[in-house]
Amino acid sequence: MKYPPFCDIIVVNFNSLSEKEIQETSRWFYEKLKNQLNTEKFKIFQPMPSPIDKIQNRYRWRIIIKGNMTENIYLILNKILKEFYERKEKSIRVTIDVNPNNMI
């Protein structure tokens, strides 16, 4: 089944005031992940709204990744985050949580 402690779950969270921006950015992030991660070792779920999809007028989306974390994965995630921040999209916040206690 590949659940912790037998693998890691990585959640990439997005939130923004604009639903359209969050959809476009999460899709961009997903494509980057899909192109750079080994899909045989990692299951990457498509971007989707969080279970509670809007809090304080901010939309929330996420990408879930399942697999075993290595230093290489950290480097790939950092590289994609750096590319995201170079795009200067200040209205979107991105956080990455490894093995979160709560998936809501």
What is the distance, rounded to the nearest whole angstrom, between the alpha carbons of the first and last residues? 20 Å
Q: Estimate nothing, just give the exact number of structural domains.
A: 1
| Gyration radius from CA atoms, angstroms | 13 Å
The total beta strand count reads 5
Report the biggest beta sheet as strand number plus sense, adding barrel if it closes: 5 strands, antiparallel
**Average predicted confidence as pLDDT:** 89
N-to-C series of helices and strands: EHEEEHE
Shape by Cα distribution: globular
Range of strand content: 25-35%
* Tally of contiguous helical segments: 2
Structural class: alpha+beta
Provide structural commentary.
The chain has 104 residues and is α+β, with helices and mostly antiparallel strands. It has one domain. 33% of the residues lie in helices and 35% in strands. Strands 1, 2, 3, 4 and 5 form a 5-stranded antiparallel sheet that branches. Helix 1 packs antiparallel against helix 2. The protein is globular. The two termini are 20 Å apart. 19% of the residues are buried.
Name some characteristics of this structure.
104 residues; alpha+beta; globular
In short:
With 104 residues, this protein is an alpha+beta fold.
Secondary structure: elements and pairs:
Elements: E1 8-16, H1 19-36, E2 43-44, E3 48-55, E4 58-67, H2 71-86, E5 92-98
Antiparallel strand pairs: 1-4, 1-5, 2-4, 3-4
